[in-house]
Amino acid sequence: MTSSTKSPESASAKAGSPRTYHNYINGKWVKAETGETFASYNPANLEEIIGYFASSTPNDVKAAVDAAQNALKMWRSTPAPARADIILKAAYLLESRKEEIATTMVREMGKVLKEARGDVQEAIDMAKYMAGEGRRLMGQTVPSEMPNKFAMAVRQPIGVVGLITPWNFPVAIPSWKIFPALVAGNTVVFKPATDTPLCALMLVEVLIEAGLPAGVINFVTGMGAKVGMSIVDDPRVKAISLTGSTEVGRRVAGRCGELMKKVSCELGGKNAICVMPDADIELAVEGAVWGAFGTAGQRCTAASRLIVHSDVYKKFTDAFVARTKELKLGFGLDQDVTVGPVVNKSQLESINEYVQIGKKEGAKLLCGGNIVTEGDFKKGCFHEPTVFGDVKPTMRIAQEEIFGPVTAIIKVDSFEEAIEVANGTEFGLSLSMYTRDVHQAFKAIEELESGIVYINAPTIGAEIQLPFGGVKQTGNGHREAGTTAVEQFTEWKAVYIDYSGQLQKAQIDNHPTKKK
Ligand code: NAD
User: 56 and 184 in contact (C-beta within 8 Å)?
Assistant: First the structure.
């Protein structure tokens, strides 16, 4: 890596020596106009500051949009295969920095190292996939109803796009947006979550080193309501892609609605694994442990409900609680740790509040339930993996997104009831069914109301070559990844070429009534 591509004060930050990092606007690393910064902390040890980042203002956003707007003409007229070459190079650079970025991710947001590597790998996969898109960007050709007339539709870039991302997949989620946006010919203003600016900055460094011209990507850190909303409000930003909470999504989509701006939102979930009596119970238990407690339950697809048939409720619950108790909580860089901290203090408190709500609602606490404060744990944001049994589908812990290591077991008496309970929330991201009965498996695929369905696998683990997103309050009808990834970043242009040399009137000249 050459020194010019890295943030001047970057390099993998070392414990105890926090550095100050800047925005990246128009090909330069620049301070916020006020010079103010905010800190990013290690959630395993809040005494460790990962770095200081620009606390940007609406004027910083304006400068970023200026740069993106100025670079647009050049970038959209760069042939898509040439744009894609840069994305492919980014894939290889990400591979070469995978360990460094993954290690930073563990320190910045807490997920364990294996999962952090997976997060970076997802971005590598996405980069390779989107690099291929540079030689596709498929349009449509269709027959015209007129003779000597050609009809086609081509994809065009939208323009400047604003990308706003959460902290739970700090490299993968930005990659789902940045790579398709760029390959399609858009220029970008990117605002990462305030909890994970360093991971996001490293992804930007990779793109710069891969050869992305100045102004094509602009990186602005800071508070959501101020920086995010300024991006949304700028009339030159033609589309917004947001992944985050349903609450923020509603606000952003509402504003985009007023501005008649294209917006895609990937939001919260209340995912469930259903376990039928004929299922391989051991497999279901393993899947449920991974689905519920992977990333300390902080995945939009986390299995926060386990809907279990009464015939196997006791067998499943006993085994599940026993396996949960074996999980090892701790710092994600320690080899034997399986569950890391949650992202910050307020998330920790919110999770514990839900535990208290669950107890008050009458759910049975089967294990966990506490914030961990012994020894070094008290410096961080650690919550015990927590299991509630005898949960009623209407309880708040069975309805609302908790986004932490807490799951609720709900007993049902039939396949039909399992489907009804699984569908009985406002969300619709990821639902799963464990069964060995092919009829039930296909019935579940048909009837589960979610953007993603798993059979005999947990609710987490999506691959980038299929569409990702949800129904109901989980989103506003868009999908990321897969062949659908470019949809939110392109406009269709229908083109008719008439080479007949005469005026031909569609729907009129060729209509049978005209011939009479
Ligand atoms: P969040 O909604 O608090 O923040 C998301 C992003 O929006 C951040 O960058 C934040 O700074 C910004 N933001 C906040 N307020 C804003 C405003 N008023 N205007 C514009 N931008 C604003 O979410 P989070 O806590 O970072 O992430 C967790 C949430 O994300 C969970 O609800 C989770 O389910 C969801 N999520 C969804 C998916 C999905 O694909 N469906 C994937 C991952 C996470």
Answer: no
Q: How far apart are CA 294 and CA 460, in angstroms?
A: 8
pLDDT by 10-residue block (mean), the chain, 516 residues: 50 65 98 97 97 98 98 98 98 98 98 98 98 97 97 98 98 98 98 98 98 98 97 98 96 97 97 98 98 98 98 98 98 96 98 98 98 94 98 98 98 98 98 98 98 98 97 96 96 98 93 63
**Whole-number pLDDT of residue 12:** 45
pLDDT of residue 248: 97
Cα of 196 from ligand 1 centre, angstroms: 12
Provide CB contacts within 8 A for 162, sequence distance 6+.
Answer: 188, 189, 191, 231, 232, 234, 237, 239, 240, 241
- Measured distance CA(500)–CA(3) in Å, rounded: 59
Q: Strands, E, within 312-463: which ranges?
A: 364-367, 386-389, 406-412, 427-428, 430-434, 452-455
Q: Which is the catalytic residue, given 115, 300, 381, 401?
A: 300
What residue owns the CA closest to ligand 1's atom 12? 224
Cβ neighbours of residue 212 closer than 8 Å, sequence gap 6 or more: 86, 182
Does the beta carbon of 252 lie inside 6 Å of ligand 1?
Answer: yes
Taking the centre of ligand 1 as the mean of its atom positions, its distance from the CA of residue 316, in whole angstroms, is 34
How far does the centroid of ligand 1 lie from the alpha carbon of residue 216, in Å? Answer: 24
Residue bearing tokens 């949809």:
487
Q: Is 266 a catalytic residue?
A: yes
- Domain range annotation of the chain: 20-267+475-493, 271-455
CA nearest ligand 1 atom 17, residue: 225
What are the E-state strand segments in 359-506?
364-367, 386-389, 406-412, 427-428, 430-434, 452-455, 471-472, 490-498
Q: Which amino acid is at 33?
A: E
Q: What is the pLDDT of residue 192?
A: 98
> Which ligand 1 atom minimizes the distance to the CA of 255?
19
pLDDT score for 3: 37
- pLDDT of 9 reads 53
pTM of the predicted protein model: 0.96
Q: What spacing in Å lies between the alpha carbon of 249 and ligand 1's midpoint?
A: 7
Indicate whether residue 474 lines ligand 1 (CB < 6 A): yes
Q: Which CATH architecture has domain 20-267+475-493?
A: 3-Layer(aba) Sandwich (3.40)
CATH topology of domain 271-455: Aldehyde Dehydrogenase; Chain A, domain 2 (3.40.309)
Instruction: Give me the pLDDT at residue 17, please.
Output: 76
Non-local (6+) Cβ contacts of 136 within 8 A are none
**Candidate of 229, 243, 403 to mutate for ligand 1, largest count of ligand atoms within 8 Å of Cβ:** 243
Ligand 1 center from residue 84 Cα (angstroms): 28
Residue of the nearest CA to atom 18 in ligand 1? 225
Does residue 341's CB lie within 6 angstroms of at least one atom of ligand 1?
Answer: no
